[in-house]
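User: Structure tokens for this complex, please. No commentary.
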Amino acid sequence: MKVLIIEDERGMALEMEDFLIKAGYLCDLAFTAKQARQCMEEGPYDFILLDLGLPDKDGLQVLEEAKKICQEASYIILTARGKLEDRIKGLDLGADDYLPKPFSLLELQSRMQAISRRKSGLKDNLVSLGDFTINFSNRIALFEDTDVGLSKKEFDLLSYMVLNKNRPLTRMQLSEHIWGSFTDDDYDSNYIDVHIKNIRKKMTEYGPVDWLQTIRGIGYKIKL
Amino acid sequence: MKLLTKLTLTSTLSKIATVILFIVLLPFLINRVAFQSTNGLLKQQAKKVMDNIRNNGIDYYLQGDSTYGSYTMLKEEYISLEKARNIYIEDTIQTAQRIIEGDTVMYRVLDQAFEYNNQLYELEIGRTIASISQYNSPLQKIALYVLGILIILTLLIELSFTRIQLRPLQTIIRTKLINPVFPFKEAPLPIRTTTVDFRYLDASLIALMNRIKEDFDREREFTSNASHELMTPIGILQTKMENLMLVNDLEEPVLEKIMEMMRTLNRLKKIVHSLLLISRIENDQYARQDSIQPDKMINEIVEELQHRIEDRNIRMSVSFQHHIVLHRLNHDLIFQLFYNLINNAIRYNKENGNIHISDGITAEGAYKISITDTGIGIEAADIDTIFNRFRKKNTIDGEGFGLGLAIVKSIADYHAIELKVYSQVGRTTTVAVNFGKPLPL
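Assistant:
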């Protein structure tokens, strides 16, 4: 998967690159609209991550032009502007998703994966997890062909950990994913424990869940 | 009391006082004027007599007698001429009694002595006092009527004129003090008046309003820019920490330290987020075009907060009587408003407490939603300040950062929603959210 990161904040761009390379993507960096155009003309991309606040051109205009050059790419808009109109305009212009800054890299990757899944057009989007299968399309966890009966929040949590497998995830990161901007600092982190406990309880009835590890004092990790 | 009322009252009272004084003084004045004119009359008559004597001789009157006397039919006037004893008499005018044909009458009497053919004569001309003072009472009455009418007339004129003159002041009060809602959206327009004082007052108020607006705009802009500019470094830091956590084989203490850092950063992020949210609301960046079913929204929020409700073993009762739709609101903001309020009701509640959410119609016909908890309550003195930014007097264990209610207030102001808080310390708090719009029937 090839990704073009268009971001004028070098510090930010480099961290994104670092993260995505580790996650198995190939990355190109562009710090200006001009550089971005050169990159786009040279090669096709699977993903174009576009910061709207570029120094040399309005981000939405860049998006419009980019859509003509790289038609196949999936676009995610990154912006600190946070204006509602930007978001609507961006999605109208054909962006696949929109992520307000500051965002979590884990969230970025999970959005990218969600887009990939959507675009792959597979009828059933399945990931195996030990003896279990996660069906992203129907949003259920299966043991053989039986639904293990996770609640909506529990499935959200599990699928987010599956997408970020082999990475330690803090309670805060998990609760931010589940409750978004409404998350309440430490207050909600404790509920992550409750949900994890429930997930373990429901799934252990069918099979071992040793892939779901607790990292003491930190959070959880799915090790596969 | 209004200025116009005061001015009218002052003018009326002063006029009435003047008129009363005038009417009381009238008899004295009339007497004075009457005496003076009688004196003049008497003197004229005396002169006429003297002219007659000079022209026709003293016998014109005396006709051989030693005295002459004459009076009018009603004894209002009399004249007497007689030889005087050889004592010089000074000319006088005085009020004195005279007995004429057995009647004692008060007269204004002129005494004058003169010589004619080496003989000294004394002339006396009198006019009754009664005839002078008999006009007093009717004059007073007429004066009362005339002045009364004059007072009413001048008052009416003054009143309408004062009203016209004070109109600019009323315009100033209406357009500069009562009508404008802060933050001011439109620049204040100067009023048109020829009164310098009002013009000065108006100009000063406009200058003041502009200054407030400028300061407010500057603050707003600063908050917006500052939050914005802060977001970028926060974003970089966050991604750096996230990458750091992914480094393989990190020692647990190091991992914990990174997590602490992330937590602190998260806190900073939320503060900036909240400030940015408030600043965006104040900058009119949210469209108010959504229609909302309040009962549905409240249930959604309660579901969202279910884990916290269960954790504290709180009994939540939601009872809506009016299943209505509210229009022209921003869905996300109203959601946030109720989310924060209900979240507070949970957070500041007691273990095993109650929360009751209900709707109703106010006496003015406006739709309202009330959230009542059995929590720690708020001191009466603090109720006015709970919506201020960075206030966290009652936070438990230092959680929260005191912006939740400030956000609620901003959202409420943005939608012209009225918030009312009733509380008893240690027992209960009710927040009433009044939409101020009558129910569409």
